[in-house]
Write a structure and sequence with these properties.
DNA primase, PRIM domain, alpha+beta, single chain, 6-stranded mixed beta sheet, 473 residues, 2 domains, 23 strands, elongated
Length: 473
């Protein structure tokens, strides 16, 4: 029960691998993971939580579901429990440098009365409850070499002959991100390095899982916002905000328009909060804010909006193609008014069409303008559109919500995460990126960073440069 050797092998000035702490667990179910690791040689790191750490074995050929096949497992240094969330790239030149995939994860239950005594004896029997490996397994130490163990499957309903099923060849993707090793290797935003360490050093409970199905932690959300700071800050700084906080995960959240906690970088007003810089953004991550909602007006001129938002919110039975068609219809009518519009995903099944305007008009004027266009569209095609929230009249229709354009109302910010399954992100798009395939425009914290790396031009590059008037010419 020591992380001394683990720490000795790593230079924490050059790698932000977690130094970690020994953490006792009273639960009979303990953490189990396998990380596929392409270091100097490809191998599988088999890890079991025991005595406050991850007991670890390097298995060169990986696990096998055939009980007749015994795989060599070389015992290596204990790892901290925090290591159980990692997937990405350890920089070259550092210990274990290479690509790491979270190949399997779950829990294990000892079949021995005293699992720690069984480990010390060198004979462990246990049940795995992972996403890929299940059922009874055995680890036995080879007496002639204390570091050499054998890992093998016990015959049960999960056992399969190797000739018919090699789990390492059949199951090749990450249980965390559904990526291959090559795809992870391309994901440079996941590299562990000293600059990343600075991101999450202003964080408490960094390993708190906020998206359990995808095993996304609080620190990963903080890292995401550190990566997209240049993209998101223009939309959220010095602008009234409402925050959706989810300290216990995305399924248990609450809105806040002001903070009780003292915070040097998040500022309170009576009916909203605001931030001024990247330190404020990181403070939002510290508070487990999973949705950042913005007003349509800047702080300097709170009674004069500088944008108008049309929220296209489809009923559950409306196909994506109709949502896309509706967005282009709104765009075409705005074009007729001489207004350039921008489009983004909401992180759900809807779209936002947004137009930047000169801050010349009060909220009532802006709401009237937006409502006039929406009501015209509803009258033009009442079978397709509805302008009221009433659920019993929304079946098969798209709710054209213009009520975002009221003082105090908000809409989700570009590049904000959403408190929904798979950690989706509200993502600005080029108009020509909108297709009839929903998957083409559904981005998450895992995939949007890769998109930004490849973008040659910001889809909303001109948003704050446009000074558009609502006067009809």
């Amino acid at each position: 029960m020591s992380l001394k050797l683990y720490r000795q092998k790593r230079n924490f000035k050059k790698t932000s691998e977690p130094a970690g702490k020994v953490k006792k667990s009273s639960s009979k179910k303990r953490l189990y993971i396998i990380q596929k690791h392409a270091a100097s040689h490809l191998h599988y790191d088999f890890r079991l939580e025991l005595d406050g750490v991850l007991k670890s074995w390097a298995v060169p050929k990986g696990p096998c579901l055939d009980p007749s096949v015994k795989r060599l497992a070389m015992h290596v240094e204990d790892h901290p429990l925090e290591y159980g969330n990692f997937e990405g790239i350890i920089p070259k030149g550092q210990y274990g440098g290479g690509t790491v995939m979270l190949w399997d994860k779950g829990e294990w239950v000892s079949e021995d009365a005293d699992p720690l005594a069984a480990y010390k004896k060198g004979s462990m029997t246990f049940k795995l409850e992972g996403k890929k490996l299940k059922g009874l397994w055995k680890l036995i130490r080879i007496r002639s070499d204390p570091k050499s163990w054998l890992l093998f499957k016990i015959n049960d309903k999960y056992a399969k002959p190797l000739a018919k099923f090699d789990v390492t060849l059949k199951k090749t993707k990450s249980v965390k991100s559904n990526r291959t090793m090559d795809q992870i290797a391309e994901g440079s935003h996941k590299v562990w390095n000293s600059s990343a360490k600075k991101t999450t050093s202003n964080l408490t409970n960094p390993d708190k899982i906020l998206y359990p199905e995808d095993d996304i932690s609080k620190s990963q959300i903080a890292d995401y916002y550190a990566e997209v700071k240049d993209w998101i800050l223009p939309y959220i700084t010095k602008r009234p905000l409402s925050l959706l906080r989810c300290p216990d995960g995305y399924q248990k959240c609450f809105f806040q328009k002001n903070l009780q906690e003292k915070n040097a970088t998040i500022f309170n007003d009576k009916s909203f909060v605001y931030i001024k810089n990247n330190q404020g953004l990181q403070a939002l991550a510290q508070l487990a804010v999973l949705e950042i909602h913005i007003w349509g007006s800047p702080l300097r001129n709170i009674d004069k909006p500088d944008m108008i938002v049309f929220d296209l919110d489809p009923a559950e039975d409306v196909p994506w193609k109709k949502v896309v068609d509706a967005a282009f219809t709104v765009k075409e009518h705005l074009d007729d008014f001489g207004l350039k519009s921008f489009v983004k995903t909401t992180g759900g099944k809807g779209l936002h069409v947004v137009i930047p305007i000169k801050p010349l008009y009060d909220w009532d004027y802006v709401k009237t303008f937006a409502g006039t266009l929406v009501n015209f569209l509803v009258m033009s095609d009442p079978k397709k559109y509805v302008s009221k929230m009433t659920k019993n009249i929304r079946k098969g229709k798209i709710f054209l919500d213009y009520f975002r354009n009221i003082k105090g109302a908000t809409s989700v910010s570009p590049y904000s995460t959403r408190a929904r399954l798979h950690a989706p992100v509200s993502t600005p798009l080029h108009w020509d990126e909108l297709t009839n395939n929903y998957k083409d425009t559904f981005f998450t914290v895992e995939t949007v960073l890769k998109r930004l790396e490849k973008l040659k031009k910001d889809p909303w590059k001109d948003f704050f440069d446009l000074k558009q008037s609502l006067a009809i010419k």
